Amino acid sequence: MTTVASIARVEGLGETIGTAFARLDERLAHTPYLRDRIAAWLRRLSPTSDPVDYFLQVRTLPILSFPGWVEEGLGVRIDSAFQNDLAYSTIAGYCHIRLLDDIVDEDPSGDASLLPASGFFHSEFQQAYARWFPPEHPFWDHFTTLWFGAAEAAVADTELATITSASFHNISARKVSPAKIPIVATCLHHERPEVLPAWLDACDRLGAIAQMTDDLFDWQDDIEHPERSTYFLSEANRRRAPGEPVAAWVLREGFGWGVRAIHSWYGELRQVADRIGSKGLDAHLDWQEAALAERAAGLIPGYRALASLAEVWPPVT
Amino acid sequence: MALKFEELVNKVMKDPKFRAALESDPAKALESVNVKATPDLIQSLKAMDWKSVHKVNAHYKAAQGIST
Fold first, then answer.
1. pLDDT (tens digit, 9 = 90+) per residue, A215-230?
2. CA–CA dist A66, A237 (Å, integer)
3. How far apart are CA A163 and CA A260, in angstroms?
4. Residues from chain B contacting residue A308 (CB–CB below 8 Å)
5. A125 and chain B: CB distance < 8 Å anywhere?
6. How many domains does chain A divide into?
7. Rounded Cα distance, B36 and A219, in Å
8. What was the pLDDT predicted at A224?
9. How far is it, in rounded angstroms, from Cα A182 to Cα A15?
10. Cα A268 to Cα A253: distance, rounded to the nearest angstrom
């Protein structure tokens, strides 16, 4: 759940995001139809109609915070010009993916007539890095591997009928590949490639937590759409008693199982975070894990109450 | 056709009128969805912790961005 109140928890990003949107507006100055349509779409996404607030929301996968945390972990001076380019690129990349995902997922905010704008977003996403990395720089190998991996995962995700633990972690890691691009850029910009594996590992783990959290709290919607396979509902099918409805297992013990699984993943991620040494990441994990516990505590008594009905609900033949 | 358990849970979450009816007059609410009101079912619905169920609904609506 994302609320406007949670926006205030992200500090220091507002100015960077505001600068990115001013740049976006400037880049679209000569294409007024495109600019107006994109602006209207971004306003619709935001809880306050201000696109800046949309990107200030506290998220399980904090795509805009990673580069600053990496610099903090490296103990280097914050490079504002570099950070501004990364934030602009990340916002453009997010918009590119979101435009396509909303159409694929048949989300109500999807707008097929806006699909041509994906070309603009992709161009801006990639071009921001050209200023910092010449064409022969190793950064571009990482860029293509990560970008293509995300496309592969998005396609594979729609075709899997059931999801195992192994396939879940594999796909969730590749789905967050675009978020790794600014992490790679930051490590290579500061000539510290040796810290890259730990940061990419942290990003993979956060990606799995983000995906599982979504699956866990959206299970009621997912169960209505059999074409949507999730790891959580795949586990529900494997773990429920013979003849037991999937919803009955979720209410009886599955939701609690899912919450415990995510908490254990946070524990493993904290061990990685300890090696990285970013206070920003630590604070984010503290806040996110507390939010998970609070949300779960609000649901579990009601789920238990509903579970009691499953035992007496007549089977449908 | 009678309601599957999954459909019941979704209806309880998404249909406030049905949820209120199930709480206040379970037999009539069950009849409206072609479910036989067995004594066990009526007993379970009357003993239900509805306060907690309403909280689940509030969380669901907040997560979906639906105003209350």
1. 999 998 899 887 778 9
2. 36
3. 19
4. 44, 47-48
5. no
6. 1
7. 27
8. 87
9. 18
10. 23
Q: Which of the residues A218, A244, A309, A311 would you substitute to probe the B interface, choosing the one with the greatest number of B C-beta atoms within 10 Å?
A: A309
- In chain B, domain spans: 16-64
pLDDT tens digits for range B23-41: 999 999 999 988 888 999 9
Q: Do B55 and A302 count as a contact with CB atoms less than 8 A apart?
A: yes
* Yes or no, beta carbons of B2 and A314 under 8 Å apart: yes
Phi-psi region of A59 (alpha: psi -120 to 50; beta: other; left: phi over 0): beta
Residue B61 confidence class, pLDDT cut points 50, 70, 90: low
- Chain B residues within an 8 Å CB radius of A312: 38, 40-41, 43-44
Residue A36 placed within a domain: yes
CB contact under 8 A, B49 and A1: no
Q: Under an 8 A CB cutoff, do A313 and B10 touch? A: no
Q: What is the average pLDDT value for chain A, to the nearest integer?
A: 90
Give me the mean pLDDT over the A246-270 stretch: 97
Q: What is the CATH number of the domain that holds A39?
A: 1.10.600.10
- What's the rounded mean pLDDT across residues A301-314? 91
Nearest CA in chain A to B53: A302
* Parent domain of A87: 4-310
The residue of B3, B4, B6 whose CB has the most chain A CBs within 10 angstroms, and thus the best one to mutate to test that interface, is B6
- Sort out which chain A residues have CB atoms less than 8 A from B31's CB and list them: none
Say yes or no to pLDDT of A2 above 50.
no
Spatial contact of B50 and B18, defined as CB atoms under 8 Å apart:
no
Residue A317 domain flag? no
Token duo for residue A276: 């990285």
